[in-house]
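Colleagues,

Please find the record for the two-part complex below.
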Amino acid sequence: MTSDPGPRPPSAAQVKTERLLNLVLVLLYARRPLPKAQIRGLVPQYGQSASTEAFERMFERDKDELRELGIPLVTEDIDAAWDDEPGYRIHQREYALPDIHFEPDELAVLGLASRTWAQASLAGPAAEALRKLRAAGVERDGDALIGIEPRLRTTEPAFDAVKDAVVRRVPVTFPYRRPEDTEATERRVQPWSLVSWRGRWYLNAWDEDRGAPRVFRLSRVAGPVRAAGRPGSFEVPEDHEPRMMVERADPPAAQPSPAVLRVRAGAGHALRRRARTVGEVDDDWSLLDVDYHDLDSFAEELAGYGADVVAEQPAELVDRVVERLRGTLAAHGGGEA
Amino acid sequence: MAPAPAETATARLARLLTMVPWLVNRQGIDLQRAADDLGVTVDQLEADLRLLFLCGYGQMPDELIEADWEGGRVFVGNADTIARPLRLGVDEAVTLIVGLRALREVPGLGERDAVDRALAKLEAAAGAAGAPADRVRAQMADGASPEMLADARRAIADHRRVHLRYLVPARDEATDRDVDPMRVVGIDGRWYLEGWCHRAEDTRLFRMDRVEELTVLDTDGTPPPQARERDLSEGTFRPAPDDVVVTLRLLPGAAWVADYYPVDSVEPVPADDGGGLVVRLRTPDTAWLRRLVRRLGGRGRVLEPADVVAAVRDDALAALAAYTAEGA
C-alpha cells in the first residue's frame, strides 16, 4: 500500500500507527490495569469502530502485534470488584531499556559491532539496537576506530529462516544438497547453533533421521526451511560448543611428511615461503625441502604449478602428481603421455 | 524521488518508539542532522513528527505529545511515558552481542578492554533477549598476523605510505608495491588491505595473508582524490566486461568448485551422463583457471573456449615431460 506524502487524508497504515502508538501511551501511562471499554474511550481510533465486535477484533490483533514487537503488554485482574473482566497495561520497568551508561570508547566498539552487520540481512536490527543504546546518551563516540571494518555477510538465502529457528529453538526441515549429490534430500533437524567460520555460515544440528549431530553448510540448503515443531521444543545439550563442532567437521591435519621439489627460478613463490630449505641447483632451478600434511591435496597443489614445479620425492607424491597431470591431459583431448 | 517500499505500521511504530527518546535527549537538534542520524529523509522525519503530535495518553491538549520543528530545530515534549527506548529485541541483542564477541577475536585490536566492558553492560541490559546469542557465533576473518594488521591500521591513522611484498598465488607471482592505505576490511573470512596502489595506479584489495612483508614508510600516504573505496556488499570478486567466459564441466568430486568460486551459472548433469555440474565462470586471467583445472586432475574439463582447452593440454604435456624424461 502506498500513500501520498504530506498533509492529505492519512493512509490506513498511518491511522494504524497512530492507533498503536496511542494504545502504547495509554497502557504505559495507566497506574492500574484498564478494562477494554475504557481503552476504547481513550484511543480515539477505536472510538471510530462501527461496532463493539469490530473494536474487539481490532484490539485483539493490536495486542498480538505489540507483543510481536517485544512490547510487554500484560493481562491482569483489575480488582475483586470487577469480577472476571480482565484489564490491560504495560509496566514501565518491563518496557524500558534499563538505564545504562556507555563510555565513549564503549560506544565506539558498539558502533563497530553494529556496522559488522551492515551488509547482512540483520543490518536493520543491528542499526536499531545501536540507536536505542545511544538514545539516552548525548556524548559523541570516542575516537572512531580508524581504518578497520570487519564485515559479516549473509548471502545464503536460508540464513534468516535458519537464524530464527536457532534463536527460537524450532525444529525444522529443509532440502539439503551435498556437493557430490545430484539430488537434494529432505533433512529433519533440531537446530542447535549457527556459526560463521572462514567466511561461511554453518548450522550445527541434531539430525533426527540419522540420530546424530551434523554440521550443515547454509549455502547447500536447497529450498525452503519449514518449521516442524513449536518454539523451545528441544534443549540444546549443555556441553555443545558451536565453534568446536564446525571445526571438527573439517578433518584434522595429519603429521607432516617431508618432500623434495624442483622449482623453476622466479616461480613457486608460495612454496618457497613454506620451504624448510631452498638450495640453488643452477640458474634455472632451485631445490626445496617442504613439509606437507595431506598427500592428495599437496599433489593437487603441485599439479597446479604445471611445468614450474617438479616433485622429486617421495615416490608416492610423484605418482599422484603425474596421475593428475595425465588426467588433465586426457580430459582435454591429449593422448596417453 | 521514488517512494521507498512501504513501511508497515508496526515497523514505523518501532522506529518512533526509538526516535522519541533519541530526540527527547537532543532537544533543539538540527532537523537535517536528526534525519541523517536516524537514517531517514527530512520529509519522513517531518511526517513522523506530525504523527507524534496527534498522539498521547489521552486526547486533552495537555495529554498529547508536543512536537515542534519550526525553524529547523526539533523539540519533543510531554513524552515521559516513552522517554526511554523499548528493551532490545532478540535480533537486536543478538547482533550486537555476537558482533562484540567476534571483535574480541580480531587480532591486534587494541580496544579489547572497551569491548569487554561494553559486552558486560550490554548483556546485563539485554537480559533474556541476549541469551540466544550463545547459539550464534561469528568469526570475522583470520589468516593475518596481528602485528601486520596493527601496522596497517597505524599507517592508515597516520596517513603513511606502506611498502608491500605481495604474493599472487593464482599467477604464482611475487611483487613489490607502494600503497597508500585506505582501510583494513575483514570480509568473507579474510582480512584485506585496501589502498591506492602506485604500481597499478588504481585502488586494489590486498589479501593480508598473502602480504609477505609490510613496511610503514616515512612518506605521506594520503590516497589521491580519485581513490575510491570499493563497494564490497557483493563480495570481493569484481567481474569486468572483458573477462573471459569459461564453461567448465565438473565431475562428481570437483563440484566444490561451484561452491568455492563465484560462478555465473550452474547446471547439474544427469547421473546417466556421468553426473556432476556444468558451470560458467568469468575470469580476467586464464592462467588462474588453467592452474585450477590442472589441480582437478581430469575431474574438471574446460568445454569452451577452444584456445583455453588447447592451452590446458599443452601445459599438461609440458609438465609431464619433466617426469617422462626422468623415468625414461
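Chain B has a mean pLDDT of 88.

Comments are welcome before we finalize the supplementary table.
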